[in-house]
Write a structure and sequence with these properties.
The chain has 316 residues and is α/β, with parallel strands linked by helices. It has a domain of 220 residues: Luciferase-like domain (TIM Barrel). It is 37% helix and 15% strand. It contains nine helices and ten strands. It has an eight-stranded parallel barrel with strand order 1-2-3-4-7-8-9-10, surrounded by five helices.
Length: 316
């Protein structure tokens, strides 16, 4: 099982020196990958609406301070040598398809083949209204078509594509990504995300705390993975070939002990509980887990990463 950590590209810890130090020292500790999130602009985040917390509030203290995702990943790629770089997730409609495909291919080449493209269709309408040229209600269809265009651009010597939102012919995109294929992890917890993962992804990449599609207990996550396997078979692919990666936004005392159905919530409780959860998810087929070690200072984050590795990860 691979273990990753969230690299803050927003808020107080997104200062260049702090973000760089976290990436470099996280790599030195032996973490397998780091994750970087994607927003271009945000509304007033004091207004509830964030789908992955119980209150609807963002977790970060100052999320309006934010580096653009792919530029930030390129910077971190230059400062590291081994750790994998996961877009968690790229909001696919944010960038025109051909431009995004070129940026991602370049990032894979510059990093020596360390890119993982987590993808999502997006959820924040006010951001779409400011940034995106395709209609907000079409974002799922746009995402599917853009991903198909990415694959063509990344693999074909003379790429051609004629879709509803993307059209190109007579162009060349070189150099191709080092990785063939570039790993795609599909974020999202609903049925459309499962179907998207089943069709195009190397892995499904949910967060357990989505209030509309909770995966916050072992039975709920197990049921979600079963739905994924079924969707993968229906898409004509081998269900056993589909990976599962899982994002942990909070753990331990920060997580209420009971879910809304009375069952114990994943990653709540003691270190022994966390070890048991990680072992259970590994047995369930989860191949990668990343954790947000949210703390107020860089020193505190690094100390918690070291403590967590010794107390939990090394005992899985």
């Amino acid at each position: 099982m691979q273990i990753g950590f969230n690299l803050p590209n927003s808020g107080p810890l997104s200062k260049v020196a702090d973000m760089t130090r976290l990436a470099v020292e996280g790599e030195a500790m032996g973490f397998d990958y780091l994750t970087v999130t994607d927003h271009v602009v945000l509304p007033d985040t004091k207004v509830p609406g964030y789908p992955y917390s119980e209150s609807g509030a963002f977790y970060e203290e100052a999320p309006l301070e934010r580096h653009e995702q792919l530029m930030g990943m390129a910077w971190i790629a230059a400062k590291t040598s081994r750790i994998r770089l996961v877009a968690a997730v790229l909001v696919v409609p944010h960038r025109p398809a051909v431009l995004a495909a070129k940026m991602l291919a370049t990032l894979d080449v510059l990093s020596g083949g360390r890119l993982v493209v987590g993808i999502g269709a997006g959820w924040l309408k006010s951001e779409f209204d400011a940034v995106v040229t395709t209609p907000f209600p079409d974002r799922g269809k746009v995402t599917d078509e853009y991903i198909d265009a990415f694959r063509v651009l990344w693999t074909e010597a003379r790429p051609r594509f004629a879709g509803t939102y993307v059209k190109f012919d007579g162009i060349v995109l070189e150099p191709k990504p080092i990785q063939q294929p570039v790993p795609i992890w599909v974020g999202g917890e609903g049925l459309n995300s499962l179907r998207r993962a089943a069709r195009v992804a190397e892995a499904w990449y949910p967060i357990g705390s989505n209030n509309q599609h909770l995966l916050d207990t072992l039975p709920r996550l197990e049921a979600g993975i079963a739905r994924l396997r079924q969707a993968t078979a229906e898409a004509g692919r081998d269900p056993a070939s589909m990976g599962v990666s899982f994002r942990v936004k909070r753990y331990g005392a920060a997580v209420p002990a009971k879910a809304n159905n009375g069952e114990r919530r994943l990653f709540s409780g003691s270190e022994a509980d966390l070890i048991a959860d990680l072992r259970a998810l590994k047995k369930m087929g989860v191949g990668a887990i990343d954790i947000d070690f949210g703390r107020p200072t860089v020193d505190a984050v690094l100390a918690e990463m070291k403590r967590f590795r010794a107390a939990v990860i090394e005992k899985i």
